[in-house]
């Protein structure tokens, strides 16, 4: 689909219906930038007068300019600040580039491997999402276009941090990144002091997937904790992430807030208080992951 700009006063409407059909997300569109069908999924990028540039896969919102920093900062900086010296990082998924952007804010990082199955997603992001994808051309970044669940199996004791920035398990190829076998392979690919962090879905509408992912990660790591963050344009607005340490580093007891206070790069959501508070779970979430 070619780029299309609507006449003043006219707009289209983008509608995303949530999985349990309780409602959805509806956005005005004043400019359609890109649409394509890749071998894996439909890709759409458009401009909204309020949300800015919006990126969607198979009709599901992945990022918007107004709030993507909330998701990417919480997914990335919790594990990155917990590792004493992260040099080599693997990002699985994350084709929009936001996670890579945040990883490279840490000066210790020497190499980031981003494994994204859909090359068309990455190329579209680089053209139409210039801020989110701003670091994908960085010389420290290696782009790999493969199935992440298979790619990670070839490594043993290789990475300091692995970040799983997957799509929903019910969309496209995302389900391969939620299996017990995949998390086991991630454990083996990490160094002995390695840390994994995965997005594990919303705990309002899709708690079964969040609970299942948490339990499968817990079966493969000695210390695992779920934490939460706000993400307004994701279903329910309350998103979960799961932190796992191969060496047993506790994200509260072993956290050094001075590292965050002395950080030179700009952060709009994450800070030392948010880091600690995010691990305080509501009772209903505790019940979901404990039952």
UniProtKB/TrEMBL annotation:
It catalyses: S-adenosyl 3-(methylsulfanyl)propylamine + putrescine = S-methyl-5'-thioadenosine + spermidine + H(+). The keyword Transmembrane helix does not apply. S-methyl-5'-thioadenosine binds at residues 41, 116, 147-148. GO terms for molecular function: spermidine synthase activity. InterPro entries: PABS (IPR030374), PABS_CS (IPR030373), SAM-dependent_MTases_sf (IPR029063), Spermi_synthase (IPR001045), Spermidine_synt_N (IPR035246), Spermidine_synt_N_sf (IPR037163). Pathway: Amine and polyamine biosynthesis; spermidine biosynthesis; spermidine from putrescine: step 1/1. Residues 11-246 form the PABS domain. Keywords: Polyamine biosynthesis, Spermidine biosynthesis, Transferase. The keyword Nucleotide-binding does not apply. Spermidine binds at residues 72, 96, 165-168. It holds the Pfam family Spermine_synt_N. The active site is at residue 165. Signal peptide: none annotated. Its EC number is 2.5.1.16. Catalyzes the irreversible transfer of a propylamine group from the amino donor S-adenosylmethioninamine (decarboxy-AdoMet) to putrescine (1,4-diaminobutane) to yield spermidine. Homodimer or homotetramer. NCBIfam families: PRK00811.1, speE. HAMAP family: Spermidine_synth. Belongs to the spermidine/spermine synthase family. This is Polyamine aminopropyltransferase. It comes from Fervidobacterium changbaicum.
């Amino acid at each position: 689909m070619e780029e299309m700009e609507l006449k003043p006063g006219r707009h289209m409407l983008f509608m995303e219906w949530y999985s349990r059909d309780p409602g959805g997300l509806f956005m005005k569109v004043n400019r359609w930038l890109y649409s394509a069908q890749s071998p894996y999924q439909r890709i759409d990028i458009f401009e909204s007068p309020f949300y800015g540039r919006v990126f969607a896969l198979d009709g599901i919102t992945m990022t918007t300019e107004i709030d993507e920093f909330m998701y990417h900062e919480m997914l990335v900086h919790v594990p990155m600040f917990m590792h004493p010296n992260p040099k080599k990082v693997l990002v699985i998924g994350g084709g929009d580039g936001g996670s890579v952007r945040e990883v490279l804010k840490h000066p210790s990082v020497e190499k980031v491997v981003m494994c994204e199955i859909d090359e068309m997603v990455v190329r579209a992001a680089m053209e139409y999402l210039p801020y989110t994808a701003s670091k994908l051309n960085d010389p420290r970044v290696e782009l790999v276009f493969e199935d992440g669940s298979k790619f990670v199996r070839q490594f043993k004791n290789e990475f300091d941090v692995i970040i799983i920035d997957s799509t929903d398990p019910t969309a496209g190829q995302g389900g391969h990144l939620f299996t017990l076998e995949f998390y086991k392979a991630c454990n083996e690919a990490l160094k002995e002091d390695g840390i994994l962090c995965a997005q594990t879905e919303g705990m309002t509408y899709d708690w079964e997937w969040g609970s299942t992912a948490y339990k499968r990660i817990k079966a493969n790591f000695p210390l695992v904790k779920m934490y939460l963050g706000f993400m307004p344009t994701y279903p329910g607005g309350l998103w979960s992430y799961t932190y796992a340490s191969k060496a047993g580093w506790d994200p509260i007891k072993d956290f050094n807030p001075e590292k965050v206070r002395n950080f030179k790069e700009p952060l709009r959501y994450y800070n030392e208080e948010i880091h600690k508070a995010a691990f305080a779970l509501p009772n209903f979430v505790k019940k979901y992951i404990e039952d």
